[in-house]
Amino acid sequence: MARIFLNGQQVGTTENAKKLARSLITKRRSGVLPISMNISYHTDRETLQINTDGGRVQRPLIVVEKGVSLLTKQHLLDINEGKATWAKLAEKGIIEYLDAEEEENTYIALKEEDITPEHTHLEMDPLFVMGAEASLLVYPEKDRGDRLNYGSRMIVQSTGIYLQNYLLRDDTTSQILSYPQVPMVASDTVDATKLSTHPAGQNLVIALMPYYGYNIEDAIIINQASLDRGLGKSTFFRTYVTEVRRYWGGQEDEVCKPEPEVRGYRSEDAYSKLEADGIVPVESIAAGGDVIVGKTSPLRFLGLQKEVRMGIKNRRENSLTTNRGESGIVEKVIITDTKDGNTLIKVSVREPKIPEIGDKFASRHGQKGVVGLIVPEEDMPFTSDGVTPDVIINPHAIPSRMTVGQLLEFVAGKTGALTGTTINGTAFQGNEADIRKQLAKEGFRDDGKEVFYNGITGEKIDAHILVGIGYYQRLYHMVSHKIHARSRGPIALLTKQPTEGRSKEGGLRFGEMEKDCLIAHGAAVTLKERFGADKTVVSICKECGVPAVVDYQKNKSQCPLCKNSKTVDVEMSYAFKLLLDEMRSMMIYPQIVAEEK
Predict the structure, then answer these.
(1) CA distances from 102 to 21, 43, 99, 110, 435 (A)
(2) Do residues 362 and 411 share a domain?
(3) Cα–Cα 20 to 30 A to 551, which of 315, 518, 562, 595?
(4) Are residues 22 and 100 in the same domain?
(5) Which ranges constitute the DSSP H helices of 376-473?
(6) CA 584, CA 544: separation in Å to the nearest integer?
(7) Which residue in 119, 121, 114, 201 sits closest to 157, CA to CA?
(8) How far apart are CA 21 and CA 4, in angstroms?
(9) Which one, of 324, 272, 258, lies nearest residue 490 by Cα?
(10) Residues 6+ away with beta carbon under 8 Å from 96
(11) Where residue 508 sits, what CATH number does that domain have?
(12) Nearest 5°: phi and psi at 49?
């Protein structure tokens, strides 16, 4: 007896589950049951699963019966002429939607010529095996699976034009590539995903060779002249928001140039960029930490009546500032109202970003790397025609990763550039022989290799170098957003250690392993300052070994247990003192055995 489940709930049992499943599928194909319903029989668990609930991912497949596809050439002609529609094909049971569970009971052919009597379904197109991002990769069948996974993740992180109306929007952060290009070697899904109108990369001349060790470990070399012409140039937008709030007691925030008597007043210079209304003007330069909206707020716990009665007009400084390390130019200022009726001020700041050493680039084959060196054009290697590459990548990145698709893309891109055509690199559709034949016709070697000369010495390089056109993406991971250092700065109130995080000017945590590195390096004295961030002095009772109570006015210390004034000052980290306090709060009294120095 097989159990029958409907949307996860057992609704009955059956003696012939396989026959019942076949019957339900036949009824679905004939239109008696809804096409969104899925039926699957699991022999190992002896269960029949029927799913009709929402949220399931389904994909269309062509039905195959007795080794023949139900989608005929006549159907395709009818669709082209407008006589038939997709919905009609689904209603007739020629196409059906399967979820992940029902797909377990199928045997799917990739192409029509692969169909055997055992097959139950046929792919609409081999490209449909992949998702939206992976389908944008070119020649994916010639790359290893994990590289495609990385490649589809990189596409998501690429800088491009995310929307055409980006100048009218006020997203918290956004990044726009200044000169995006449609790929020279493209997949059929480029138009479907709107990447032809919202591109996110550039076609670059790529050479595959080492360069004095500067492109070791996946690093890439970039031509300075290419940067000057706009390679990878982008603009980073950040929107800062502040709200003019109203408080209990009739008080409210005020947008203005703060007066010197306001608590927390910065300096006259800090507010010099603000106009009379307290807001920074459009197109003014804003450095990191600059005030862009001057705002004062009432002191907490002081109502309007108290303020009038006591004659106190104390206010605190509460201005909106740019993030430290992020400078730019004020793009626009928006003044509007919230749903509560409070005034809302948004200031958008733009910052041009030109690729620098450490910025991240990636191809569509999961070959990601940071800029290792920016080389003047006269020092770059050049071909016998005088062509200098935009980017040099390391040939050692290819053998272990087996991204043959990338090599083929370079050759195909070169052919496309010479013939003035876009090459189709869709999954399972690329024709390598035709591309190589066409390249040979253009007067080049069919494998894309050329003779190169050293730009520094002028000598001919012994080996032939592969050079072609590759589509490279600039990713949003940039050095200017990640670089971080600190000497002195703010500390946390609780632990008296430096704050955490780059945005809070935080310290860099120096642990046991880092300590070992310094000792091995012979710089052990450096540890003295590294491990003294929260050094404190605590008076300890000589008899009881517990922290003493210190009276700073009388300059005396006394043990809270034995009332003894015999104490000794002990140096310790504040975090350890905090641990002692925590333990005493749980009625555990740790005893410190203090000795005289």
Answers:
(1) 11, 13, 6, 18, 40
(2) yes
(3) 595
(4) yes
(5) 404-419, 432-441
(6) 13
(7) 201
(8) 10
(9) 324
(10) 28, 29, 35, 60, 61, 63, 90
(11) 3.90.1800.10
(12) -100, 125
In what order do the strands lie in the sheet containing 254-255?
254-255, 295-298, 315-317
Beta bridge partners of 241: 346
Judge residue 366's burial from the number of C-beta atoms within 10 Å of its C-beta, 0-12 exposed, 13-18 middle, 19 or more buried: buried
DSSP calls for 404-419: HHHHHHHHHHHHHHHH
- Is residue 479 in some structural domain? no
**Percent of the chain as helix, strand, coil, to the nearest 5:** 25, 30, 45
Phi, psi for residue 160 in degrees, rounded to 5: -160, -145
Q: Are residues 395 and 459 in the same domain?
A: yes
Among 89, 124, 159, where does a domain finish? Answer: 124
Which H or E run contains 362?
Answer: strand 360-362
Give the separation between CA 294 and CA 68, rounded to whole angstroms: 74
**Mean pLDDT for back-to-back runs of 10 residues, the chain (597 residues):** 90 90 91 91 90 90 91 88 86 90 91 91 89 90 93 93 92 95 92 89 96 93 96 96 87 90 89 93 93 89 58 78 91 94 94 95 95 96 95 95 95 94 90 91 92 94 95 94 89 91 87 90 80 86 87 86 85 92 91 77
Start-to-end C-alpha separation, the chain:
84
| Closest listed residue to residue 581, CA positions, set 560, 552, 595, 554 | 560
Examine the domain organization and report whether 416 and 495 are in the same domain: no
- The two tokens of residue 593 are 């055995």
**Strands lying side by side in the sheet with 343-353:** 173-177, 234-244, 343-353, 328-337, 285-286
Same domain, 327 and 253: yes
433 in helix, strand or coil? Answer: helix
Residues 345 and 296 in one domain: yes
In a domain, 139, yes or no: no
CA–CA dist 150, 152 (Å, integer): 6
Do residue 64 and residue 165 come from a single domain?
A: no
Catalytic status, residue 218: yes
pLDDT of 306: 58
Does 129 map to a domain? no
What CATH number does the domain containing 459 carry? 2.40.270.10
CB atoms within 10 A of CB 106: 13
Looking at 188, 218, 446, 447, which residue is catalytic? 218
Non-local (6+) Cβ contacts of 76 within 8 A are none
Q: Which domain holds residue 518?
A: 484-530
Q: Is residue 137 part of a domain?
A: no
Phi, psi angles (nearest 5°) of residue 287:
-85, 170
Q: Are residues 364 and 431 in the same domain?
A: yes
